[in-house]
Specification:
The complex is a heterotrimer of chains A (344), B (328) and C (335). By secondary structure, chain A is of the alpha/beta class. Chain A contains 12 helices and 12 strands. Chain A is globular and about 65 Å long. By secondary structure, chain B is of the alpha/beta class. In chain B, strand 7, helix 8 and strand 8 form a beta-alpha-beta unit. Chain C has a single domain, classed as MetI-like fold (Orthogonal Bundle), CATH 1.10.3720. Chain C contains 14 helices and no strands. The N and C termini of chain C lie close together (11 Å). Classes of the chains: A alpha/beta (344), B alpha/beta (328), C mainly alpha (335).
């Protein structure tokens, strides 16, 4: 079975106005998403993950590289507006209040994508009602305006608008970052349920690592426009092999004072500007393990284990660090114990 | 009476009200009691709309009109800031009581270089000359870990990244060595690694000066690692107050557990602690404000509002039926 | 980089001027009135009219007339006014300094009146000053400047006898000071000619006051709006949290509100160069606006077009200067 989405060597450069320099937002990214699975792109600001999401949906044109959807090549006139792709790829945005038209009722917003698929009024209404119930919202929401809803409910509507065309792939760009932790958890539950019921694949772009671990099958770690490590979710969180991944995971604060991350791996400084990237590994300037080789040539993607890839010359040194405890798993175990007691 | 045991902040029975046209007034804060001792780090956790920011403003005496303090007192170092006149209050803010804000690039003055802004705080509070305050500001830039501080002194807020702007905000807050630092969601919106760096920095620098800190946040995980005591706020009331270790071991209030449950990966367990509000359901007057969302509620909760009481474990909880370690 | 920006802007002036002249040329051609009839009188014969029109080139097709005119402009030749019988360039050079002196001082007066009142109106919640500023903002826009000029003349000259008669820029008996800047007041100051200074100053007071009072209105309203907005912005709230003294916060807020005020001042300046004509006429100022209006009334094309060219160039220079001031005031615009 061919993959649903295949991205090969994607490159995106943005010109800087007033000079000949370019912002190297995406520098050669490869990944695959299979039907019904979730791939997460994690990274900090400036890592290029949002740009990749937009390129996949066709909101921006790639500078180089190929994107294959369902075996057919995208780009050069074939994008999400083409008749054979329409409605099969959808996008959910970060700020729910900003992505919904405040002057249009929720029901109409939800039904809008269906108009371009040629459904009749009756069919559209039926679909919208179906979606509203899947979202766990009350029926009367259809007649309300977005600003009458809470942030969590607004984001559900944003997701509803994406699933109403029964897409095969949804790109979610930081869908939970603007929400409170409780609303965040509800949205994640919803996404998991929808994936189970509808078989949709997700490209989940986020910097919320805790959610990512829960929701994704596979995770790709981005830095300065490149994937530095890619693995199955549990594997990555338990055994990160790239210095950047290790540092990223060590920075996540978990709600348990006993799980203070040992911090064996902290990077200095901040992410440099994506203009004028030096050759070699993008992390070389900040990495404690960097040597001459790292500055000279970009490490190739090495396979470590069946589905675990890492771009680092020194990944064995990272593996040797004493990080045998997967704090995220420990937290879940403690959580389970805590939550099981005490409810009536 | 030993000086060192006097709390730096003492909030008693604080009620803050916002009048609403043609409707009942909104009580943003309903009888808040909170004490922070000198050098203590306290966390205040709540969802959006719980009253956290209003509390921060009330502490500083800066409740935006038409809101006002209806009842109660906020004593900072023994003085009630909301009853001071404008000039006296300005002398305290930024000098003994400082706030680290959430979105510095939006809140710093866009047309003044950042070094000068830091220097301004010292200049108008410490009575030193310009040259000296500039030097002090430069040292602060260095202390907060901004690379190339001499050059960055003349940078404007929009030239800086989010993390660096946040460090500037910390420098501004700490330059006069305040006794209490309030962090109002200071790291939301920052990248994970930057957040870790900024929080470490804040903890270190505030601790070095022996100052106390109030960490106001939506993210309960932060308080686990930087605070010795935690307060949970819901709908303008403190619903739980406990030592950190005890809190995460044995959270007692259903809302606290609900907040922690957000981190669980088990939808089933999370559902155990979440009650969906039915149509038009709001808290009945006289009853517990959390009752509509509470999975443990009983008849008594709807009728009678609970008060903060002491549990055997040492925590304070506002609940008729808190989760205690042995009870089911 | 700044020099490159200035050079680029100066280069842009050329196509901008071309466009302005083209549109003005076409509009001017629409002025009713036959210049030939104007010049020769209503009793002239059809033959002589036709001959004159031929000679002035009015019988040629429009685009040819335009090309000819542009060609002349490039050489610095703006044609001649048949009314004054002198080259337009000469006329304008003689009259523009008068207009500039009037308009510049008038605008300064407007700023001096409007800006502080605007700041006060923004800061005070109630009280007499606020009320006054409110009414003033409303009235100033409704007040015709020539009407106000006449009122002021009546009060201060006719009744009180304080000011000079509204007849030009200086007493006829007084000798003109050496021309340095073109402004009589400044030149007398530079040269040290007390008589000329006193006389030109006394003649300047009323027209400047007129322009000042009328144009302070928009400046006041704009200042009030932007300062009010600046005060509710987040950085003011933050400055309060840092405990900065009230006057410092005010200063900072005003500083941020300045760019918008500067914009409206520059727009007013450009407008007043031609827009002060009524005041010029009432005070017999002998300015360029007056000259251009005369041209319109006489269907004398060249002065009108010449005035347009002059004031267009001036406006473009003013806008460039304002943009540079913007750069100085607001670092966010420097990119």
């Amino acid at each position: 079975m061919s993959a649903l989405l295949e991205v090969q060597n994607l490159v995106k450069l943005f010109p800087v106005s007033g000079s000949r320099k370019v912002v190297q937002a995406v520098n050669g990214v490869d990944f695959t998403i299979n039907r019904g699975e979730t791939l997460a792109l994690v990274g900090e600001s400036g890592s290029g993950k949002t740009t990749v999401g937009r390129a996949v949906v066709g909101l921006i044109e790639a500078t180089a590289g190929e994107i294959w959807f369902d075996g057919k090549r995208m780009g050069r006139g074939r994008n999400i507006r083409s008749s054979d792709v329409r409605g099969r790829i959808q996008l959910v945005f970060q700020e729910p209040a900003e992505s919904l038209d405040p002057r249009i009722r929720v029901g109409e917003t939800l039904g809008e994508p269906l108009r371009y698929l040629g459904l009749s009024r009756a069919d559209r209404d039926a679909r919208v009602r179906d979606v509203v119930s899947r979202l766990g919202l009350a029926d009367r929401v259809v007649d309300q305006f977005p600003l009458e809803l809470s942030a969590g409910q607004q984001q559900r509507v944003g997701i509803g608008r994406a699933i109403v065309t029964k897409p095969e792939l949804i790109v979610l760009d930081e869908p939970t970052s603007a929400l409170d932790p409780t609303a965040r958890a509800e949205i994640v539950d919803l996404l998991i349920r929808l994936q189970r019921d509808l078989g949709t694949a997700y490209l989940f772009i986020s910097h919320d690592l805790s959610t990512v671990r829960f929701l994704s099958h596979r995770v790709a770690v981005f830095y300065l426009g490149m994937i530095l490590e890619e693995a199955e979710s549990e594997e990555l969180f338990a055994r990160p092999l790239h210095p950047y991944s290790a540092s990223l995971l060590a920075s996540v604060l978990l709600p348990d004072p006993k799980l203070k991350q040992a911090k064996p791996m902290m990077l200095e400084g901040e992410i440099p500007s994506p203009i004028d990237l030096p050759s070699g590994c993008p992390l070389a300037g900040r990495c404690p393990f960097a040597d001459a080789q790292c500055h000279l040539a970009l490490p190739p993607a090495t396979a470590v284990g069946v589905t675990h890839y890492v771009r680092c010359y020194h990944h064995d040194r990272v593996a040797a660090l004493d990080k045998t405890v997967d704090h995220f798993a420990r937290l879940q175990a403690d959580m389970n114990k805590l939550l099981s007691a005490g409810a009536s | 009476m030993a000086e060192s045991t006097k709390p730096i902040l003492e909030i008693s029975e604080l009620w803050v009200t916002f009048p609403a046209y043609g409707a009942e007034a909104i009580h943003a804060l309903k009888g808040i009691d909170l004490r922070i001792d000198q050098g203590e780090f306290v966390g205040l956790v709540g969802e959006s709309g719980s009253g956290k920011t209003t509390l921060a403003r009330a502490v500083m005496g800066l409740v935006p009109p038409p809101g006002r303090v209806e009842r109660g007192r906020v004593l900072f170092n023994g003085r009630d800031l909301s009853r001071l006149d404008d000039d006296a209050r300005r002398a305290v803010l930024g000098r003994e009581l400082a706030m680290v804000i959430a979105n510095p690039r939006a809140e710093l003055n866009p047309v003044i270089p950042v070094g000068r802004q830091i220097s301004n705080v010292a200049y108008y509070h410490l009575g030193m000359g310009r040259a000296e305050t500039d030097r002090l500001a430069l040292n602060m830039l260095r202390a907060v870990g901004i690379p190339d501080p001499e050059r960055r002194f003349n940078a404007y807020p929009h030239d800086l990244s989010g993390g660096m702007a946040q460090r500037v905000a910390i420098a501004m807050a700490l330059i006069c060595s305040p006794k209490l630092v309030i962090s109002d969601d200071a790291t939301s919106g920052l990248d994970v690694t930057v957040q870790a760096q900024v929080l470490d920095l804040l903890q270190r620098m505030v601790g070095e000066k022996g100052a106390a800190a109030l960490f106001i946040t939506r993210d309960i995980a932060i308080t686990a690692h930087f605070c010795s005591r935690i307060a949970i706020i819901y709908a303008g009331e403190i619903v739980e107050l406990a030592e950190t270790a005890a809190f995460f071991e044995r959270p007692a209030h259903p809302h606290s557990i609900m907040l922690l449950a957000a981190f669980s990966h088990s939808p089933a367990l999370r559902a155990r602690w979440t009650r969906v509000l039915s149509e038009g359901e709001t808290a009945t007057t006289g009853g517990c404000t959390f009752a509509p969302r509470c999975v443990r509620r009983q008849n008594r909760c709807v009728v009678e509002a609970p008060t903060l009481r002491h549990l055997t474990g040492g925590s304070w909880v506002r609940c008729h039926f808190p989760v205690e370690s042995d009870t089911a | 980089m700044l020099l490159r920006y200035i050079a680029r802007r100066i280069l842009y002036v050329i196509p901008q001027l071309f466009g302005i002249i083209l549109v003005s040329f076409l509009l001017v051609k629409l002025i009713p009135g036959d210049p030939a009839v104007m010049m020769l009188g209503p009793t002239a014969s059809e033959q002589s009219l036709a001959a004159l029109r031929d000679k002035m080139g009015y019988s040629k097709p429009l685009w040819q007339q335009f090309t000819y005119y542009i060609g002349a402009v490039v050489h610095g030749d703006l044609g001649s006014s048949w009314q004054t019988t002198r080259p337009v360039t000469e006329d304008l050079f003689q009259r523009f300094p008068a207009t500039l002196e009037l308009v510049t001082f008038g605008l300064l007066a407007a700023i001096a009146i409007g800006f502080p009142l605007g700041v006060a109106a923004a800061r005070l919640q109630s009280g007499p000053v606020r009320k006054f500023a409110g009414y003033y903002g409303l009235l100033a826009g409704a007040m015709p400047d020539f009407w106000l000029a006449l009122v002021l003349i009546y009060i201060f000259y006719t009744r009180l006898g304080w000011s000079a008669p509204p007849l030009g820029r200086i007493d006829m008996a007084v000798e003109l000071p050496k021309t340095v800047t073109g402004s009589l007041v400044i030149d007398s100051l530079i040269v040290g000619d007390i008589d000329a200074l006193s006389s030109s100053f006394r003649h300047l007071v009323l027209p400047v006051l007129t322009l000042g009072i009328v144009n302070a209105g928009p400046i006041l309203k704009m200042t009030q709006t932007t300062v009010t907005r600046a005060f509710s912005s987040e950085f003011v709230r933050y400055a309060e949290m840092c405990g900065l003294p009230r006057r410092v916060v005010l200063r900072q807020a005003v500083r941020v509100a300045l760019p918008a005020v500067v914009t409206i001042i520059s727009v007013l300046y450009g407008f007043l160069i031609g827009g002060a004509v009524l005041v010029e006429i009432v005070f017999s100022w002998g300015g360029a606006g007056q000259y251009a209006v005369q041209g319109v009334l006489n269907a004398d094309v060249n002065p009108v077009l010449g005035f347009v060219v002059f004031s267009a160039v001036l406006s473009l220079i003013i806008y460039l200067a304002v943009d540079l001031i913007y750069f100085a005031l607001d670092p966010r615009t420097r990119g």
